[in-house]
């Protein structure tokens, strides 16, 4: 899984997408504190396990 840290609006924790050439990609909100970023990554990873090819914004 490729993980990117991007500055996003505060109401977005993370985004997940599966792209054929790259595979699984997650963008985590770089504006959030470290602890919240960890929880966001955990949530995104669980989404990947459950439905790996369905995009999500949380």
Question: If you had to describe this structure to a student in words, what would you say it looks like?
Answer:
The protein is of the alpha+beta class and 58 residues long. It has one domain. 29% of the residues lie in helices and 34% in strands. It has 1 helix and 4 strands; from the N terminus they run βββαβ. The protein has one helix at 34-50; strands at 2-6, 14-19, 23-29, 56-57. Strands 1-3-2-4 form a 4-stranded mixed β-sheet, with helices on one face. The radius of gyration is 11 Å and the shape is globular. The mean pLDDT is 90.
Rg (CA only)? 11 Å
Write down the overall mean pLDDT: 90
- Helix coverage percent: 25-40%
Strand order of the largest sheet: 1-3-2-4
Our measurement of the CA-to-CA distance between the termini, rounded to an integer number of angstroms, reads 17 Å
Structural class determined from secondary elements: alpha+beta
Low-confidence stretches: none
Tally the structural domains.
1
- Oligomer classification: single chain
For the sheet with most strands, the description reads:
4 strands, mixed
How does the overall form come out from the CA principal axes?
A: globular
Query: Number of DSSP helices?
Result: 1
Indicate the proportion of strand residues.
25-35%
Strand tally is 4
Order of helices and strands: EEEHE
């Amino acid at each position: 899984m490729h993980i990117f840290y991007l500055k996003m609006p505060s109401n977005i924790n993370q985004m997940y997408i599966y792209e054929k050439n790259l595979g699984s990609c997650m963008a985590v909100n770089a504006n959030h504190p470290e602890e919240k970023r960890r929880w966001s990554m955990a949530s995104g990873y669980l989404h990947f396990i459950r439905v790996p090819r369905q995009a999500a914004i949380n």
